[in-house]
Amino acid sequence: MKKFLMLKKEFRSLADIKQAGILQRFFKTGPGQYGEGDLFLGIKVPVQRKLAKKYADLEMSWIERLLNSPIHEHRLTSLFILISQFNKADSQTQKDIFNFYIEYSKRINNWDLVDLSAPNIVGKYLVDKKVKELKILDRLAVSHNLWERRIAILATFEFIKLGKSDLTFRIAQKLLKDKEDLIHKAVGWMLREVGKRIGEAEEEKFLLPHYQSMPRTMLRYAIERFPEAKRKKYLRGKIGLK
Question: How far apart are CA 232 and CA 220, in angstroms?
């Protein structure tokens, strides 16, 4: 408990009311917005990373307490600590951290929390697992919870880094008709990463059958790195036409 109380004290001392107000608006915390009710202290990410490093051996019960907090920085710092512990853990402890993450996935409830943690815990845990274990991403991809769906597609980033696109395409397929802009952006981003890291031709294996029906934002994100002439053809629906 002593370390937990020391960490909470550091959070309070680092709080910046002006910065908190900026973050509250940036992360859409108003009524009806995706981050409704999220509270901020105004602590920047690099500072939170330093806190996570300092308290990297915090016990899981206190990490759980932070993850259940309504304060955004508490949750993000707890995720940084989890990532640190995951990277140093044996296989059984990694499995335990992965299961903990999935159990508390609804508390990973803003886009930065997902983007900074899902590839580093869910993705890294699953990269060498069998087909049966990968089905967790299929389940998350059809969840009613926006953040679980985003976790599903962001977790595939680790596979892309290893030159594997099949899982990204599989999850992207499930999210093609998603109504949330934050999902459109995430899927487009991962497709763009396929093009960047594996090859434009590989990305087009998915784009060509789907680009005319996918959400416009998803398409724009996906083709952002394409040559201008090809990008315009995609946007006009005339790719492959003379």
Answer: 10
- The Cα 140–Cα 91 span in angstroms is 23
Give the rounded distance of the alpha carbon of 148 from its chain centre. Answer: 9
Percentages (nearest 5) of helix, strand, coil residues in the chain = 70, 0, 30
Alpha-carbon span 184 to 175, nearest angstrom: 8
d(CA 238, CA 47): 47
Q: 61: helix, coil or strand?
A: helix
Report pLDDT digits (tens) over 56-114.
999 999 999 999 999 999 999 999 999 999 999 999 999 999 999 999 999 999 999 99
Q: Where are the alpha helices (DSSP H) in 142-199?
A: 146-155, 157-161, 166-174, 181-197
Q: pTM, whole model, 2 decimals?
A: 0.94
Q: Are 71 and 113 in contact (CB under 8 A)?
A: no
Contacts of 158 (CB under 8 A, 6+ apart): 119, 120, 123, 124, 126, 127
**CA pair distance 93, 52, nearest whole angstrom:** 18
What's the gap between Cα 8 and its chain centre? 25
Least confident of 2-11, 117-126, 212-221: 2-11
Q: Which of 2, 14, 101, 93 is nearest to 49 (CA)?
A: 14
CB 172 within 8 A of CB 187: yes
